[in-house]
Amino acid sequence: MHTIELILKSTPMPLSVQRKTEDEAQALYQKLLEAMRSSVNQIIEMTCDRQPGKKVAIMTTEIAAVMITEKAGTASTGKPAGFFVMSE
């Protein structure tokens, strides 16, 4: 399972959706990158392969960062994958 996490400009918590295959995850990641590079404001709706009823729609101008990770089958360190934010 691959997780695509998004950080929005005015939201402290990341949004995430999962994809079963690496190809699907990479395709969504590239779609989000293209939307971030575009100057046209649009809405992207995403669904989650892990939770089929989960849907999220976001304005592309609000995306600050995108990250893709693969869930490993090894023991976890207790820290979820994600972005690290430092503040003063």
Q: Could you please describe the fold and organization of this structure?
A:
It is built from one helix and five strands, in the order ββαβββ. The chain has one domain (2-70). It has a three-stranded antiparallel sheet with strand order 2-1-5, with helices on one face. The protein is of the alpha+beta class and 88 residues long. It has one helix at 22-37, and strands at 2-8, 15-19, 43-47, 55-59, 63-70. The model has no long low-confidence stretch (mean pLDDT 85).
Summary keywords:
5 strands, alpha+beta, about 20% helix, 3-stranded antiparallel beta sheet, about 90 residues
Q: Portion of residues in helices?
A: 10-25%
Order of helices and strands: EEHEEE
Instruction: Output the structural class.
Output: alpha+beta
Number of beta-strand segments: 5
Strand order, biggest sheet?
A: 2-1-5
Strand content: 25-35%
Radius of gyration: 13 Å
Low-confidence stretches: none
Distance between the termini: 35 Å
